Backbone:
């Protein structure tokens, strides 16, 4: 098990209560194999971190993008806090190597599973919130997202989610994703598009956006969540 102080350096945050950090790193599979008293899984902290993350990302998008309407802000937030994105962020800080998990889960590649990384990262953020408050949690979140949040644009999201889906599909030998615009609603000056993304000629997910590109990006983001989970 790696020294968790290295994780604190990656987060840019030092815990006053290190037991909070330890609990945040306990995967539920460990409890299935070890019933020692005093060991709690990170699931409650995951719940708290999910709420803190959603609030902070929503606030930052609201402030940074005053021209964007509620529907688009909701879709942007969904992309930024989805399991696929959080899994990538967790991988960036090598979160998997700090986690405590059962031998079976570890043997099945648990330290690199996107779902474990995503949930573990939410738990760590919940621990930061309890240890240092909302301001410290915000600082950690903004450091983790970096340019992805500070310079967020619809075109960037289009590139990121669609390219990530293509890379994942190729890695799993599913072929290249294809997209169809299946619906267009609203007035000409403010349309709302619905797109579907297909893999191996099967519809995987749908998405919406104010342009065809953002609708396709939204569909790709939803597909990533499905494939990672």
Residues:
């Amino acid at each position: 098990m790696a020294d968790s102080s290295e994780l604190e350096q990656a987060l840019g945050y030092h815990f006053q209560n290190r037991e909070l950090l330890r609990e945040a790193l306990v995967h539920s599979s460990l409890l299935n194999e070890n019933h020692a008293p005093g060991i709690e899984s990170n699931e409650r902290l995951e719940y708290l971190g999910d709420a803190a993350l959603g609030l902070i990302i929503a606030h930052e998008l609201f402030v940074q993008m005053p021209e964007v309407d509620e529907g688009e802000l909701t879709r942007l937030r969904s992309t930024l806090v989805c399991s696929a994105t959080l899994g990538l962020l967790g991988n960036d800080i090598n979160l998997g190597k700090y986690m405590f998990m059962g031998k079976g889960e570890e043997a099945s590649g648990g330290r690199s599973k996107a779902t474990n990384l995503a949930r573990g990262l939410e738990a760590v953020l919940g621990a930061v919130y309890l240890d240092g408050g909302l301001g410290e949690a915000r600082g950690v979140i903004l450091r983790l997202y970096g340019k992805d949040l500070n310079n967020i644009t619809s075109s960037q999201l289009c590139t990121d989610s669609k390219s990530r889906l293509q890379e994942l599909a190729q890695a799993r030998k599913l072929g290249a994703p294809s997209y169809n615009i299946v619906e267009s609603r609203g007035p000409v000056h403010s349309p709302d598009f619905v797109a579907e993304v297909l893999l191996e000629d099967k519809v995987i997910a749908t998405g919406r956006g104010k342009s065809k590109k953002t609708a396709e990006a939204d569909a790709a983001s939803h597909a990533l969540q499905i494939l990672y989970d």
